Amino acid sequence: MVERVRRALAKVTGEALGPYQSAVVRIGFAGTWLFFLLREFPHRHELYGPDGPWSWQLAERLVDGNKAFTVLLWSDSALWFETVYAVAVLASVLLLLGWRTRATSVVFMVGVLSLQNRSVFMGDGGDNVIHLMAVYLVLTRCARVWSLDARRARLRGSASAGAAGPLLWLVLGGFLVFGAASGRFGAGWTSAFAALWVGLGLWWLVDRYEREGEGRAALDVLANLLHNAGMLVIMAEVCLIYATAGWYKIQGSRWQDGTALYYPLGLDYFTPWPGLSGALAGSGTLVMLLTYGTVAVQVAFPFTLFDRRVKNVLLALMMLEHVGIAVLLGLPFFSLAMIAADAVFLPTGLLVWVGARATAVRLAAGRKGSGRVPAPASAPAEPSPVPR
Known about the structure:
It is a single chain. With 388 residues, this protein is mostly helical. 70% of the residues lie in helices and 0% in strands. It contains 17 helices and no strands. The protein has helices at 2-14, 19-39, 44-47, 56-66, 78-97, 101-118, 125-137, 148-156, 164-181, 186-209, 214-250, 253-256, 274-281, 284-300, 308-328, 332-342, 348-370. Helix 14 packs across helix 15 (308-328).
């Protein structure tokens, strides 16, 4: 028993578990938020800006009461709003690509919290999931594969190479000093951001000058613990979402009699394809099966994590369910957010296979463009020792 505990502790502290899953979660949520910001760019002023129904004064009063974090209330000028929105878009792009991910994940979180907490009644369930995952991603080493950081570490021997890291650290430090000195962050957020900023500096120094010493080993252990705890919280959050949604559905009479799906299919707001929605609503048997199936899958999923095969089947069903929600009910960003969250449970073998196929296609396209005959693609290497 003691030996098993020792091995488990060594694994948790000595390895960042689920590098491919964390990379997919990072790409999924950064991409979902980026697509949402770009899609709503023409309407940004009405959603989160000065033209919104939730006025700047109302937002200020609400934030004073609930102590939510948002930098948008630092000023009511249009220039400040446009700057924050642009930084949120840029941070989403950089996190999607995995560039200086330790820093950009923090900026991404600031962008998500700032916009969503400015107009709290504009979001839906998908926004709530992005809100939570933006915080959890800061804890993870989500750039160990499929990122520019991993590529830099592979080519230059260190993900901290180059002058961009120290420059970004100085810029964020200036932002932190301003926010702390002006009292805009509050004591709690000031402490959290200060700890993150100091950690970024330590990582750069150790990765640059002491890659094999005790300092690097201690930081690796701490980073692995935070990463694995963050991944555990993400998995628990997904299970909690499905469990609560499923059990609440069971208590509803429309879900009990199998007709719950029929009603949203008749609402104009949720029928982007009226013909398709009408055809589905016209089949009572199909409506009943989809209604009961949704409840069964959501309630059962947390209990299937101990059986890999059953878990994978239900995971595929849930992802297909979200694809159906995106198409039938016109909720693409909610569905993308939930699929990105579900990705934390994807099997590693599948992700490695997808990565290998994507690499093979990219190399084949590059060789075809240069007139050379494509060579067989080899399996992907193990995750590079990226300090993320």
